[in-house]
UniProtKB/TrEMBL annotation:
Lineage: Eukaryota, Viridiplantae, Streptophyta, Embryophyta, Tracheophyta
UniProt KW Coiled coil keyword: no
Subunit structure: Monomer.
Record function comment: Phosphorylates the second messenger diacylglycerol (DAG) to generate phosphatidic acid (PA), another important signaling molecule. PA is required for plant development and responses to abiotic stress and pathogen attack.
Domain DAGKc intervals: 124-281
InterPro entries recorded: ATP-NAD_kinase_N, DGK, Diacylglycerol_kin_accessory, Diacylglycerol_kinase_cat_dom, Diacylglycerol_kinase_pln, NAD/diacylglycerol_kinase_sf
Record-linked PANTHER family: DIACYLGLYCEROL KINASE (PTHR11255:SF102)
Source organism per UniProt: Oryza rufipogon
Residues covered by region (Disordered): 1-34
Pfam families: DAGK_acc (PF00609), DAGK_cat (PF00781)
Record keywords: ATP-binding, Kinase, Nucleotide-binding, Plant defense, Stress response, Transferase
Protein name: Diacylglycerol kinase
Length: 499
């Protein structure tokens, strides 16, 4: 996968990325979708407004959930209880039938014990779709895009990520549909099975949603809804890799409509994902600043670190552990430091983030301000921070043994399905890599990685995964460990280049 800029302790950068998956063969084009793309309605006497109205009506017909199910899932969200949706569902059915029961499943009064148990509707849309929007992404384009998506597929099916977390969607919305499906509602069963998810945001937002949907594997609640992308971030590497573009175009109203059709009809590919665990010594100074990890990392609390012979530094008896999943890249070094500073600046002065272009200009300026472009390659390595990484260990494919990797550069080789480890020397090097004029320095390929980091003169290391940076505190006495290994199940992403 390609990568967007990130941050780290001053100096060289070490980052890892997974290779882009191969796309599957796109399905046959549906008739109506093909007509919309290939016919000019204007020659038949229809104006642009008529075409737009037809497309909007077609999208609603394909994607909109029945009213009773929309009411049910939102009731489950409000109550934070998937079973609460059933009561709203029953109330809607009873009102629609004038207070009498007996749906399509077989007449009679609604059962008092399980009033939704006998229903058997068949009004599911052929391509049910919901959307998540990050209003903080894309130079604050998120709020107006949210309104546009609500116009196209319905207000109840577009979720603001500052209000509804994807983990809540998985637990309560999908849980509600599963309960109604088990109770006999054919439409709920069809929607749960065929549902697709659109995510409007940057790489970090897409990863957040993919990670929460991946929990369905662990909970044995398949199938997993595939994800489509509207790129609103600064780098949008994941979006580029799957044909959704490097940024959202200026003609965003029409683009939103096209993106929804692509989400409905696009083929689905599997995407490798990587589980990361950060094990850090317990913090002893209560006056230190509060940890501010991204939402893609969750706190596992206190745990025991088991050394299997790879550790070189001192180990504490107990450590604090954080884990998460990344899909595109993890990096540590100066690029992560730049990304962290950029995010802080954007949060403090949101008026500066007026769009993707201004974001990139600010990012470039912040990079120069941090001195990345002016650090000499021959300068003392202590000034560049990577001497804190006292050991880099990997496991090769089909091997259970850790192998110590000396910090040096080897010629790049590519194998699909492995984690690639690269090094970038300076800002100018990273910039030329990102525009594909030169290649990054390849260090190794691995099925698993362990980084051991010990604080020397540096009290913090800057890290990021999929564009979400954080400042990782280091301990002068004890080591901090970063472990990365492949998640045993794939994530599903829709190909945006099919149509």
């Amino acid at each position: 996968m390609s990568s967007s800029a990130s941050e780290q302790p001053r100096g060289d950068q070490v980052w890892s990325s997974s290779s882009p998956p191969r796309s599957s063969t796109p399905p046959p084009q549906p008739l109506v979708g093909g007509l919309i793309e290939s016919l000019s309605f204007r020659s038949c006497g229809f104006g642009r407004a008529a075409v737009s109205a037809f497309e909007k009506e077609d999208l609603r017909a394909r994607a909109a959930l029945p009213q009773r199910l929309r009411a049910a899932v939102h009731a489950a969200l409000r109550a934070k209880d998937p079973s609460a949706g059933a009561f709203a569902y029953v109330a809607g059915n009873v009102a629609a039938r004038g207070g009498r029961g007996g749906g399509g499943g077989g007449g009679g009064e609604v059962s008092a014990a399980n009033p939704w148990f006998e229903v058997a509707h068949d009004d599911a849309p052929e391509s049910p779709l919901v959307a998540f929007v990050n209003p903080r992404s894309g130079g604050r384009l998120g709020p107006v895009l949210k309104t546009r998506l609500q116009e196209l597929i319905g207000e109840d099916q577009v979720f603001d990520l500052t209000v509804v977390k994807p983990s809540d969607f998985v637990q309560y919305v999908l849980g509600c549909l599963e309960q109604l499906a088990d109770a006999g509602d054919h439409s709920a069963k069809s929607i749960r099975h065929n549902l697709r998810v659109m995510v409007a945001g940057g790489d970090g937002t897409v990863g957040w949603v993919l990670g929460c949907l991946g929990d369905l594997y662990v909970q044995n609640r398949e199938p997993i809804p595939p994800v489509a992308v509207i790129p609103l971030g600064t780098g949008n590497d994941l979006s580029r890799s799957f044909g959704w573009g490097a940024s959202f175009p200026f003609g965003w109203k029409a683009a939103a409509k096209r993106s929804l059709y692509k989400a409905i009809f696009g083929s689905v590919s599997c995407l490798d994902s990587w589980h990361i665990v950060v094990s850090m010594p317990e913090r002893r100074d209560e006056e230190e600043e509060e940890l501010d990890f991204p939402h893609s990392l969750r706190n596992l609390g206190e745990c025991t670190f088991y050394d299997d012979g790879t550790a070189e530094g001192e180990l504490p008896e107990t450590v604090s552990c954080f884990d998460g999943v990344f899909y595109n890249y993890f990096s540590i070094g100066m690029d992560a430091q730049v990304a962290y500073g950029f995010h802080q600046l954007r949060d403090e002065k949101p008026f500066l983030a007026s769009g993707p272009l201004s974001n990139k200009l600010i990012y470039a300026g912040y990079t120069c301000k941090q001195g990345w472009f002016f650090t000499q390659c021959i300068s003392d390595p202590e000034l560049r921070g990577l001497t804190n990484i006292i050991r880099l260990s990997i496991k090769r494919l089909d091997s259970s043994e850790w192998e110590n990797i000396p910090r040096g550069f080897v010629e790049a080789q590519s194998d699909d399905g492995l984690l690639e480890i690269f090094g970038l020397k300076q800002g100018w090097h990273a910039s030329l890599v990102m525009v594909e004029l030169i290649s990054a320095k390849h260090i190794a390929q691995a099925a698993a990685i362990r980084l051991e980091i010990k604080g020397g003169q540096w009290r913090d290391a800057y890290m990021q995964m999929d564009g979400e940076p954080w400042k990782q505190p280091l301990d002068h006495e004890y080591s901090t460990f970063v472990d990365i290994k492949k998640v045993p199940y794939p994530s599903l992403i829709i190909n945006g280049g099919d149509r």
